[in-house]
Amino acid sequence: MATKVEKVGIKKEDGYLYFLDKKGNIAKAKMGRGRKAAKAKPKVVAKLGVKRKPGFLYFIDKQGDLSCVKMSRAGRKRKSKNKRRRGGKAAKRKTKRSKTKRRKK
Predict the structure, then answer these.
(1) Domains: count for the chain
(2) pLDDT in tens, 63-99
(3) Among residues 5, 15, 56, 79, which is most buried (max CB within 10 A)?
(4) CB 84 within 8 A of CB 28
(5) Residue 85, in any domain of the structure
(6) Under 8 Å between Cβ of 8 and 48
(7) pLDDT at 61 > cutoff 70
(8) What is the spatial distance between Cα 37 and Cα 30, in angstroms, rounded to a whole number?
(9) Which segments of the chain are extended strands (E)?
(10) Is residue 26 assigned to a domain?
(11) Does a structural domain hold residue 83?
(12) Domain interval for residue 40
């Protein structure tokens, strides 16, 4: 669950992206539509000076407050080297086919 960092109460406008800039302030930038890039520079909406913690994602929630949540970086775990060397399902299929051929003879 997300935790509130600062209560700001920003009213969001359509067509703008709200984010936490490098200085720790909340800024808004006009979103580009289609292939056109946004030409306007980001405008600072609220000066907060928040210091970021590494491994956390900062965002503006539905109430217009600054919140943060721990980033999930799990992804899919890789197989161990032993399992990769065996060949997985393809190797098992070959062994099953060879056993059935031996039985027929």
Answers:
(1) 1
(2) 999 999 998 876 666 666 666 666 656 555 555 555 5
(3) 5
(4) no
(5) no
(6) yes
(7) yes
(8) 9
(9) 3-6, 16-20, 26-30, 43-46, 56-60, 66-70
(10) yes
(11) no
(12) 3-70
